[in-house]
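sorry for the late reply, my laptop died twice this morning and i had to redo everyting from scratch. anyway the thing you sent over, i finally got around to it. pasting the sequence first so we're on the same page, its 66 residues, then the predicted structure underneath. double check i copied it right bc i was rushing
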Amino acid sequence: MLAWYIFTSMGFYPLASSSTYLIDSSVFDRITIRRNNGQCILTIIVHYNSIEIIYVERVLLNGKTL
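ok and here's the structure:
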């Protein structure tokens, strides 16, 4: 359950038995995930983060809309 909570708090989580991730709203304004060597592999930036704003308007990956 802890892994699920961490993923959902970040705003995405893996769909069981697939390589698909579901995208949801995050509780954090900014998240950076790094490898053990310090290399950044993912940064999530949430604009206008609020408890009232629960829907994701758009998602960009390397500047392109998903």
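The helical segments are 2-10.
thats about all i looked at so far, will dig more tmrw
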